[in-house]
Structure to design on (234 residues):
């Protein structure tokens, strides 16, 4: 059994998609990041970085209980564990390259674009423009790569596509005000349509839907999500 520490945000969505695609048995453990539950000692024992997603595989290699945190690490772990949605040996370098492109570029810049467009104080136009333009650049890199191919790596759907799906699924929020965020990126639109057409995608989007996650963006939420912006309590 896999314990899946979850909040309905882009990075956990990638793991939900893999779990549903692979048909693995798992238990959802809600972590309400707007309430600061990611900072609890019990969760920090699983992910010292205080972020979701994380998993604990109680039947890991050798029968040991294994913790894995960071969405890219979890995707690689699950692909290796199950032999599903991985790539051929000759495509391994390509897979790692695109996973890290998403993990170090597309994902973080998308997150910062959201932060500066929705959460940061007004007047930070430079930061808004910087992150928005970098998201667009990353979109263009991936869109260009996808020209003439169905999937990001090789000829089959893989964890690279799942990883991209997590943040691309929030494109309308990332590219604030865009009527069609994929208008300039037809290959990304095609990729998203192909993944969304898979039954597992709908099931992944429904993960955690019954849990009453906090949705109010109040002072508690800001302190929970952005603790480095606040001085430590005396």
């Amino acid at each position: 059994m896999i314990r899946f520490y979850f909040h309905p945000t882009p990075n956990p969505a990638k793991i939900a998609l893999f779990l549903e695609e692979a048909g693995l048995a798992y238990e959802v453990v809600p972590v309400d990041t707007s309430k600061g539950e990611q900072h609890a000692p019990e969760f920090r024992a699983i992910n010292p970085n205080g972020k979701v997603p994380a998993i604990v595989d109680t039947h890991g290699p050798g029968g040991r209980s294994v913790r894995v945190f960071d969405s890219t690490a979890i995707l690689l772990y699950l692909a290796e564990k199950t032999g599903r949605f991985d790539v051929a040996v000759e495509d391994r370098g390509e897979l790692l390259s695109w996973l890290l492109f998403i993990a170090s570029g597309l994902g973080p810049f998308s997150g910062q674009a959201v932060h500066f467009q929705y959460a940061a104080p007004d007047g930070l136009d430079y930061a808004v423009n910087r992150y928005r333009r970098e998201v667009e650049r990353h979109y263009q890199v991936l869109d260009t790569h996808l020209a003439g191919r169905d999937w990001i790596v090789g000829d089959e759907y893989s964890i690279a596509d799942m990883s991209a799906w997590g943040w691309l699924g929030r494109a309308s929020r990332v590219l604030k005000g865009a009527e069609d965020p994929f208008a300039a990126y037809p290959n990304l639109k095609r990729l998203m349509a192909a993944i969304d057409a898979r039954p597992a995608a709908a099931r992944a989007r429904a993960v955690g839907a019954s849990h009453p996650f906090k949705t109010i963006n109040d002072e508690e939420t800001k302190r929970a999500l952005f603790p480095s912006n606040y001085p430590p309590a005396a």
Summary: Residues 92-119 form the longest helix (28 residues). The chain is about 50% helix and 10% strand. Residues 3 and 27 are 5 Å apart (CA to CA). The first strand starts at residue 2 and ends at 6.
